[in-house]
Design goal:
38% helix, four-stranded antiparallel sheet, 4 strands, alpha+beta
């Protein structure tokens, strides 16, 4: 288990606010968390330097760009030596359509989240991955029909304070 970066309640408030509204001014952030601007800016910079804040990004409305499919693929690799895992992960990182890649426990090795312009494109992508000989033994895919929940952030208050259901 990794050691946690120590934070206090103001740091947590900053993280919660920035996760929800990353494009706010330092003055607005300071006001929302109950600090004056100077200490708020120092804290935000420290959170960036420690790596707790990795960056800022826009929430893109993908559906407004055109048709697309989101696919979750369960991938089993043929060999389980450390070199084989690295080979697969390095190859997967080269496909920009793979937007998330998780090494998981259970009946398969990786769970991929893939975004493609359509089903045909996705099928061609998977065929290319198989042809590239990156160690895929088999895969099973699930096409997303509808997204029923989309949280743009993490449950920071629960994780940072280790609150558990009682």
């Amino acid at each position: 288990m990794r050691s946690a970066v120590p934070i206090d309640r103001f740091d947590l408030k900053i993280l919660v606010h920035l996760q929800r509204e990353g494009r706010c001014s330092n003055v607005d952030l300071a006001e929302s968390v109950g600090l004056s601007p100077s200490p708020c800016l120092l804290r935000t910079k420290r959170l960036q330097e420690t790596g707790l804040i990795r960056g800022y990004g826009a929430d893109i409305a993908l559906e407004k760009l055109g048709d697309h499919v989101i696919v979750f693929s369960e991938v089993t690799i043929s060999s389980h030596r450390p070199h084989d895992f690295r080979k697969f992960e390095e190859a997967a990182a080269k496909y920009e359509e793979i937007v998330e890649c998780y090494n998981v426990s259970g009946g398969y090795d990786y769970l991929l989240k893939i975004v493609a312009p359509g089903v045909g494109y996705f099928q061609a992508l998977m065929e290319k991955m198989l042809d590239d000989d990156i160690g895929i033994e088999r895969f099973a895919s699930r096409i997303v029909l509808r997204q029923s929940l989309d949280r743009r952030g993490y449950p920071l208050r629960i994780i940072a304070t280790q609150k558990r259901w009682e």
